[in-house]
Amino acid sequence: MNMSVQDFLTRLFLFACGGFAAVVFACLVTGYIRSFLERRRKVQCRICGYRFYATPDNSHAECPHCGAANRR
């Protein structure tokens, strides 16, 4: 297999572009998954409307602002 310098550089460029696209895609997917999981932990109080984070094991989250018990 005899490859010219131009063929080698073309293949190297395409390989680098594909690798860069794969890294960008992985970063976008990771960011989407993180934001989805973070949105699941957020709870909004039904009385005062305050948004806060609740632990996933607690079915009744207490609002730190007004103290009301909120169901998930």
UniProtKB/TrEMBL annotation:
It comes from the Bacteria. It comes from Akkermansia biwaensis. Keywords: Membrane, Transmembrane, Transmembrane helix. This is Hydrogenase nickel incorporation protein HypA. The chain crosses the membrane at residues 12-33.
